[in-house]
Amino acid sequence: MKKRNILIVLVLCVLAVCLMTGCKKEEPAPPEPEVVTYTSPLTGVEREKKYPARPLVVSIDNVGDAIPQSWLSKADLVYEFPVEGQQSRLNAIYYSKFPEEFGPIRSTRPYFVDLTREYKGIFLAHGWSPAARDYLMSDVVPYINAMNSGLDFYRVADKEGPHDSYIKWSEVRGEIKERGWWKNKKKIRAFKFLEEGEESIGEGAIKIMVDYGASECEYVYDAETNKYLRYIDGEPYIDHETGKQIAVSNVLVQRVSSYAYDSKGRLEIDMCEGGKARLFTNGKVVKGTWSREDLDSRTIFVDNDGNEFKLTVGNSWVQVADQDTSVKYKKPKVEEAPEEGSADLPGAE
């Protein structure tokens, strides 16, 4: 009897130890949460953080003491437009990253507003032409302008006016939130992008030369990084804040026609007219055309076979080039390649 009692006590002890040390059947580990990613329609870059409701389009000065500008390296897209005086102006589109400040900011033209409509953006500028003022004040796009916003646009000490106007992102962000411009997500049509390992089709193009007359630049293809490096006057075109050269995954050329409509030579450009287009990516050039259904639609770039251009994932610069703008490129180890026709004609590519 004593032996039986002892046996029972031992069994009970073993059971107690098992309970204390977790001898019970283990539950299966819960599955890992699925990682949700979001792809930028402008760059093709994936990330786990959502993109904002709409991008910010900023009119950036591009002459004289304005260069080098601040934080162009953070822009998803940069458009370079012809303006009066054979000069050019930039429109930087920020969607993935917003820098601490923007500048130097300059005035707007009506076709800058057309661009903002295309990307469902919020427009930021300092000043306007009379036509652009009337256009903006018709409320076609949400906008912030130094002329009537009351926000703190300030002048930096290391640039001469009028190339010295800046504003902090905190000011702009506060206005966007107060106006409710980020409450409703806007659907932005995406560019087409090359899949990983997919090759672009086209002939080699290792250098691009763009000349607006009083403003010019060059892009040189760097095979090591698979990017085009931007130059001005033969010197690297740098970001004022980082000191690093601007590097671009894609360069698009969008051919337009323009005419001067006032005594100051301001230009009228029909951004829905359509025309020739070129895509420079992966050290190659793809030839084609562009079209746009209306001012609230995206511009569509297609090759000569009707296939939509496929960009390399990353940032892009778009050279909007009118009939007075010369665009040329160099093939590997050959002379400059003019567009079909005489290389002496303005705007030869």
Indicate the topology.
Blueprint (H helix, E strand, L loop, with lengths): L1 H20 L16 E2 L6 E2 L8 E5 L16 E7 L3 E8 L6 E2 L7 H9 L3 E4 L4 H7 L6 E3 L8 E2 L9 E4 H11 L12 E2 L9 E2 L2 E5 L4 E7 L4 E6 L2 E2 L10 E2 L1 E6 L2 E3 L6 E3 L5 E7 L2 E8 L8 E4 L6 E2 L4 E6 L4 E5 L5 E2 L12
Parallel strand pairs: 3-7, 4-25, 7-8, 11-24, 18-25
Antiparallel strand pairs: 1-2, 3-5, 4-5, 6-10, 9-10, 12-22, 13-14, 13-26, 14-15, 15-16, 15-17, 18-21, 19-20, 21-22, 22-23, 26-27
Structure characterization notes:
This protein has one domain (about 40-335): YerB-like fold, CATH 3.50.90. It has helices at about 1-20, 110-120, 130-135, 170-180; strands at about 40, 45, 55-60, 75-85, 85-95, 100, 120-125, 145, 155, 165-170, 190-195, 205, 205-210, 215-220, 225-230, 235, 245-250, 250-255, 260, 265-270, 275-280, 285-290, 300-305, 310, 315-320, 325-330, 335. Residues about 340-349 have low confidence and may be disordered. It starts with a helix and ends in a 12-residue tail after the last strand. A hairpin with a 4-residue loop joins strand 14 and strand 15 (about 225-230). By secondary structure, it is an alpha+beta fold. The longest helix is centred in the first third of the chain and has 20 residues, at about 1-20. The strands form six sheets. Strands 3, 4, 5, 7, 8, 12, 18, 21, 22, 23 and 25 form an eleven-stranded mixed beta sheet that branches. Strands 13, 14, 15, 16, 17, 26 and 27 form a seven-stranded antiparallel beta sheet that branches.
